[in-house]
Amino acid sequence: MKRKLGIIGYGTMGSWHAENVRDRIKDLDVSLIYDINPEKLEKAEKDGFNTAKSAEEFLKSDVDLVLVATPNNFHKDYCVRALDSGKNVVCEKPVCLDMKELDEIFAAAKRSGKLFTVHFNRRWDV
What we know:
126 residues, alpha/beta, Rossmann fold, 5-stranded parallel β-sheet, 5 helices, 5 strands, 21% strand
């Protein structure tokens, strides 16, 4: 069974992840993209992805996993909202701007019982 990935943020990293998941991970479907910028949504649609017109629409969807790839100052809010919506979350680095924000994300993960992790894409580079 394919899992459904939703991506918040379709800039450089969000679009990179979307294309790589689509091309390389057959058990994960990029099912929905959301970006606050209408031009980014239009690009996602041209790239063949379904889009949500609002964060609320995105968070009400049936995605299993949310990848947060927004500018850093938005990470905490989107991570908390996604976790509180019952979604597992992967966040781009840096995860947040201070420890208080990280504590809020951890509290949301605990409250929701969902998984939260940070994407360290260069972790295994030598």
